[in-house]
Amino acid sequence: MELRHELEGDYKETENVTREAFWNVYRPGCNEHLVLHNLRKSSTFIKELDYVAVEKGRVIGNIIYSRMMKEGMICNEIIAFGPISILPEFQGQGIGSLLITETMKRAKELGYKAVLITGNPDYYRRFGFISASKYHIHLPDSSLDEEASFFMAKELEEDYLIKHPGIYNFDTVFDPSDIELERFETLFSYKEKRESRAGDL
After folding, report:
1. Where is each N-acetyltransferase domain found (predicted)?
2. Residue 102 counted as domain residue
3. Model-level pTM?
4. Cα 105 to the chain's mean position, in Å?
5. What is the CATH number of the domain that holds 153?
6. Is the distance from CB of 153 to CB of 135 less than 8 angstroms?
């Protein structure tokens, strides 16, 4: 297996990988493949940190990074990764961990100072992430007095985040409309959606 930069010729295959990885996991169907598609066209997209995992010429995983937003402006030193996706049949083999660790090393080499993400704290603690609220960093509409454990931060430069508190947000492409998603889905083969459940995102 090799890790390399995603090429334009990989785009459709990588979107399929992302769709397979997220389908029916957090909601009926998924929208992460559309997020990936739109993020590549955004000014927040970091091409140098767009990597794929390839096995025998087949894309089996992907990680993509973007710059965070603060007060409507793009942050040049605080970034986020996601979606990160691994084909279901290759999950549990450490490929996702490898993508995260190797690209965060590269992010540090490129001069980025910190990474913010949302996700499962139990999983991301192993990579050194802690609650962003420890640095007085919050998402819009979140309580400044309560810890949002799913919103996490990792410094690439020591003591950087404590000097940059505030309200941060992800690119708006992370919240695509249902209409846009419905149109995008017509470009893919049909997949059955599960029923909605309490707790769906």
Report:
1. 1-157
2. yes
3. 0.94
4. 16
5. 3.40.630.30
6. yes
